[in-house]
């Protein structure tokens, strides 16, 4: 293995909330968000981490926060600004940590789709709609939509988020906030997708998370990463079938081919699959940013 993977972090004395892939520490007036190298597939966290995955995702989000110039939760990516309760942990946290603002999290996943795939494609095949939005007949898997659509989902702690209609979103968070979230999410997707396409990457769809600070919306969590989005190589795009991608495609393919039933504990990943997956995440970062990944 090229580098040691960080599957979890432990900083004694700081309250910790552990998600599927992130460890979030409460610093009092701020949060420390650490992207580990854990990887999930089919709603399971796998036993084998992907070295540097957390660093790649953090640095991609860092790039987008700077590029988009949208109010967001990032205060600093410099760990030197805080004193850690365990200084021996600093090397493993470097490059994968963000000091962020606390906020009231909006309980909606703001999904924007520019292409028809995933759960949207499945729903379209059933009724010609996605989250209550009617689409033209005759679309294929991975067809580009005439314009991006906003398809919200509930935020679930375990399992899949649940797609909902915009009307249901209004019932949950109110009309004014829903309309602002829709407009701002589509705007960010369009700007990000246009830039990514210039770098040879199609962002097929993505999900944004938002928070409120003193009544103002800020963009939170990760942004336009291969974990929160579908990244496709533009030069290989062919509608009518599934596309190659810049994320955990090797992992999903291996688990499917290995015969895992997706109901019992998942198997360990072979080193070859881990290395290929790590390389694909790094390729996405370098292609987007024109920067060499610093932890090679």
Précis, in short:
With 296 residues, the chain is an alpha+beta fold. It contains 7 helices and 16 strands.
What CATH calls the topology of the largest domain is D-amino Acid Aminotransferase, Chain A, domain 1
**Could you tell me how far the N terminus lies from the C terminus, measured between alpha carbons in angstroms?**
12 Å
Residue runs with pLDDT of under 50 for 5 or more positions: none
Which structural category do the helix and sheet elements fall into?
alpha+beta
Features:
single chain, globular, Phosphorylase Kinase, domain 1, alpha+beta, 2 domains, 7 helices, D-amino Acid Aminotransferase, Chain A, domain 1, 296 residues, five-stranded antiparallel sheet, seven-stranded antiparallel sheet
Walk me through the structure.
The strands form 4 sheets. Strands 8, 9, 12, 13, 14, 15 and 16 form a 7-stranded antiparallel β-sheet that branches. The chain has 7 helices and 16 strands. It is α+β, with helices and mostly antiparallel strands. The chain folds into 2 domains: 1-102, Phosphorylase Kinase, domain 1; 104-236, 2-Layer Sandwich (D-amino Acid Aminotransferase, Chain A, domain 1).
